[in-house]
Amino acid sequence: MTGRVLQSTLREVHEVLRSKRLWATFVIVVLVFVITGPFGTVDKMGLAERLAFWFCLHAIAWLTTITVITAVEIRLAERISHDLLRLALSAAAAAPLIAALLELLMWSWIGRTPSLASYGLQLSLCLVFAILFSILSHLTVSAPQTASNGMVSDQGPEVAGAEQTSSRAEIPLIRRLRHDLRGPLLHLTIEDHYTVVTTIHGQQLLLLRFSDALAELGSAKGLQVHRSHWVADHAVDDLVKEGERLMIRLKNGQRIPVSRRCAAAAKVRYQT
């Protein structure tokens, strides 16, 4: 696993683990197993040991599932654009490892000897489990970042007008964003395997190739000014020089580099 994939995996796992819904579900599932005591645990263990056993088993299973499917999906993100296929492959990669870990825990804790039959049963259950978590991870990673770095600043009447226009315009990319972040686009950029989408309401990381994000801009008016940057026309304040580099200054103060290949088009469009 490369450093970039590892970094992206850790960040995405962190986002998933911050989900309150995830932890609420975890607690409910553990309690159900503690109360019902499957695999003979209700007869062999007291309440405290049963709670510890099922907590450890589910913690191992859930964390392993989330980590493996996240890493696999990130590795496949630039090779496979079809979401459902990536989710299925991620689940298929995670299930055998989870099943082996659970068999090992069952053997070491309650003395149940592993066998091909028991492993096969675990594998089938873990595959379903991994598919559910693959979908959960894919949805949770789209949780937005709070725009605390000044991205949501007073943009002036031009942006207010643009917001009304964007509510009528068809921009498929907007539908990928949380409802509270949907609004006029300001800027798109690449960060690791993600596309960072900035609107007037904040930022959101999308596990989406930059080229695919650009293809979903629809009626949004703007320009790709660098292989890693797209800017909306209404967000541009000026075109400035910083030494030998040409930069676009957005109305929120952010500066975006302009590549040499895009310089001519940027000058025609934005130079005052």
Automatic annotation (TrEMBL):
Transmembrane domains' residue ranges: 21-39, 51-72, 84-110, 116-136
Annotated keywords: Membrane, Transmembrane, Transmembrane helix
Domain HTH LytTR-type per the UniProt entry, residue ranges: 192-272
PROSITE patterns: HTH_LYTTR (PS50930)
Statement: the UniProt record of this protein carries the keyword Transmembrane helix: yes
UniProt keyword Transmembrane helix present: yes
Gene3D superfamilies on file: LytTr DNA-binding domain (2.40.50.1020)
Protein name per its UniProtKB record: LytTR family transcriptional regulator
Native source organism of the sequence: Peteryoungia desertarenae
